[in-house]
Amino acid sequence: xxxxxxxxxxxxxxxxxxxxxxxxxxxxxxxxxxxxxxxxxxxxxxxxxxxxxxxxxxxxxxxxxxxxxxxxxxxxxxxxxxxxxxxxxxxxxxxxxxxxxxxxxxxxxxxxxxxxxxxxxxxxxxxxxxxxxxxxxxxxxxxxxxxxxxxxxxxxxxxxxxxxxxxxxxxxxxxxxxxxxxxxxxxxxxxxxxxxxxxxxxxxxxxxxxxxxx
Length: 214
Hints:
Blueprint: E1 4-6, E2 9-11, H1 25-34, H2 41-46, H3 59-75, E3 79-87, E4 90-97, H4 105-110, H5 113-136, H6 157-188
Antiparallel strand pairs: 1-2, 3-4
Helix pairs in contact: 1-3, 1-5
């Protein structure tokens, strides 16, 4: 493989991996927050939302560093500016995660392939951000009944249809659980358990060919 060295890193001509925009723990934390609320770099700094153990020499240093990573996530399509506010002669940019839109099956089928790819990439990055944050905060394994599983499968068309139908039914059940819990919490004031549910189901690329026999 031909490779050229540019700016201290090796360029191979290949597309970046899906998780490349999340190569810094601060970006993971920013994306996690932006997927739950609109926020500016200023508010992020003032609320001290950076990962545990990350410190700065001054507020200005923190703001400069945090703003840079917000812009990098915006460049990667993970967040977008939804509002600007003029404050003391400066412009404050308010960001929002780009994975908050829900599509029905029919709407998703009508989207062009490139738009579906973009949505899948940013949605996956959002899931990775929440997972990584929970692992860093050591809440991911706090409960012994937590789930983390993936299974490689070989399916025919009928199996694929049964597979996706089961996932749709599971999602509908989880949504009902979420709504019921929301109503109970509002009425009782019970303790809130922050949780994340993720489901993946996709056609994998074909396996590499076996080496030719001698």
